[in-house]
Design goal:
Layout: H1 4-11, E1 21-25, H2 32-43, E2 58-66, E3 71-78, E4 85-92, E5 104-107, E6 113-117, E7 123-130, E8 133-140, H3 151-158
Antiparallel strand pairs: 1-2, 2-3, 3-4, 4-8, 5-6, 6-7, 7-8
Length: 161
C-alpha cells in the first residue's frame, strides 16, 4: 500500500500516457465505461463506481488503465469549474490498509474501514478496500476551502455500487 501513496501524490494533477498505459477519454472516442470493462477483464474483479449525487456537479471525464499493475484511474471533473476534480484510483488489494500518523479512521455504512489521509498537499483523500480491491478517492483541495469535511468523500464512498 505504501507504494501507491507516493504515486497518488505525484500523479494527482499530472496524469499522462506512458508505455503500458491506455488513456481513455470521451473526446478521443473512448468511454470511461470501456476503461472500466478492460480493467475488470485484467483484474478479474468487479469495480464499484460512485453513484448518486456528487459534490460540485462532478461527471466522469476520462480514465487510465495501467496494464502492468493493473490499476484503473478515473477522473471526474466539474465542467463549469475544472478545478473541482475527483480522482478514483482502483487496484487489486495486496495488503491490509496501514494507518499512519495523522490519519483518521472512519467506517462506511456497510462496516468498511476507511482511512482519511489529510496530509496530502493537493487532495483530500480516503482509502479503503472492498471486494478485493483498493480504492483511493481524492477530491482536489482549494485555497478557499479550509473547512473541508471528510464526510464529502465518505458520502461518495457510501454511494459506490
Amino acid at each position: 500500500m505504501r507504494t501507491i501513496l507516493p504515486l497518488f501524490i505525484c500523479c494527482f494533477f499530472f496524469l499522462s500516457a506512458c508505455n503500458g498505459t491506455l488513456v481513455v477519454n470521451d473526446q478521443a472516442g473512448y468511454t470511461v465505461k470501456q476503461a472500466i470493462q478492460q480493467f475488470e477483464e485484467l483484474s478479474q474483479q468487479k469495480v464499484l463506481l460512485p453513484k448518486g449525487t456528487m459534490p460540485y456537479n462532478l461527471t466522469p471525464d476520462y480514465g487510465l488503465i495501467h496494464h502492468e499493475e493493473p490499476r484503473l484511474d478515473l477522473i471526474y471533473i466539474d465542467k463549469k469549474n475544472q478545478s473541482e476534480t475527483l480522482k478514483v484510483y482502483i487496484q487489486p488489494a495486496i495488503q491490509e490498509l496501514i494507518q499512519e500518523q495523522g490519519d483518521q479512521e472512519y467506517t462506511l455504512k456497510d462496516g468498511t474501514r476507511v482511512i482519511y489521509r489529510p496530509y496530502f498537499s493537493s487532495a483530500y483523500a480516503i482509502e479503503f478496500q472492498k471486494n478485493g480491491l483498493d480504492y483511493i478517492l481524492g477530491l482536489s483541495k482549494h485555497a478557499g476551502n479550509k473547512n473541508f469535511d471528510p464526510r464529502e468523500l465518505l458520502d461518495i464512498a457510501n454511494g459506490l455500487n
